Amino acid sequence: MPLAAGMYYFFHETKDNTVKRPALILIHGAGGNHLSWAPQIRRMDVGKIYALDLPGHGKSEGVGRHSVDEYVEDVVTFMKELKIGSAVIAGVSMGSAVALKLALKYPRKVRGLGLIGSGAKLRVASEILETAGNSNTFEAAVDLVNANCFSANVAPALLQLSKRHLMEVRPPVLLGDFLACNEFNIIEQLPRIKQRAVIICGAEDRMTPVKYSQFLKDSLVKSELHVLENAGHLAMLEQPDVAAELLKQFIESLPVRKKKEKPAAEQK
């Protein structure tokens, strides 16, 4: 089981001898894990992909955090341990907050941003904060969150699978994630982010409505926005093929470093 900095990660690599693209790091949202990313995204043909389980989530060790900044430091430690100098950072919901804060605090480590179900602030309903950390009300909190993460036409099997994954999270971890989201607010700092970004939002997102993504588009100087029909907050699960193609096109549009050709004399 691959671990780095105490975190489990799913790894996929596509071999390409001529083009060296930046690594892609996928960061899940509150109560999520690497399976929050559909296989179409985790196995994209773009080079090296790392889908993390943040501390206390999925197969990772440790405990969950209570602030986005703490998760940022976890990701930076992960990158240092695996000697990843810079990468495209893609995140959903809380994971997008981590990506944005990483771009602010460590700009040289971020080659580009993939922001799904995102916003410059992520206020959480008081009902969720009051119930998520209590084992007696935990399932009610999960049901409330799950119901608001998908579109009206979500496949029942996907809805059930999402609930099962959320129920596997310890209540203090889920509460900590939502507390981190609730305190996140970088509205005034957005103009400092200069990296290119692709913003993806479900047309039926009730957790971070389209206006949140539009605000990001208007505030980030090098960004593009795609609103996906028949998708809610977790657009990359309801429309995985479309989301994967948008992320792939974005990564392929970034400047790449081509390997230098060896002189003819050295090739003999």
Gross geometry: globular
What's the order of the H and E elements? EEEEHEHEHEHHHHEHEHHEH
The total of helices stands at 11
Overall number of strands: 10
Q: How many angstroms separate the termini?
A: 41 Å
Structural class: alpha/beta
Largest sheet: 8 strands, mixed
Query: Oligomeric status of the shown chains?
Result: single chain
Mean pLDDT: 94
Short description:
With 268 residues, this protein is α/β, with parallel strands linked by helices.
Descriptive notes:
With 268 residues, the chain is α/β, with parallel strands linked by helices. Strands 1-2-5-4-6-7-8-9 form an eight-stranded mixed β-sheet, with helices on both faces. Strands 3-10 form a two-stranded antiparallel ribbon. The chain has helices at 39-42, 68-81, 94-105, 126-131, 138-147, 156-167, 171-183, 210-219, 235-238, 240-253, 264-267; strands at 3-4, 7-13, 19-20, 23-27, 48-52, 87-92, 110-116, 197-202, 223-228, 257-258. It is globular. The longest helix has 14 residues, at 68-81. The chain is 38% helix and 18% strand. Strand 4, helix 1 (39-42) and strand 5 form a beta-alpha-beta unit. Helix 2 packs across helix 3 (94-105) and helix 5 runs antiparallel to helix 6.
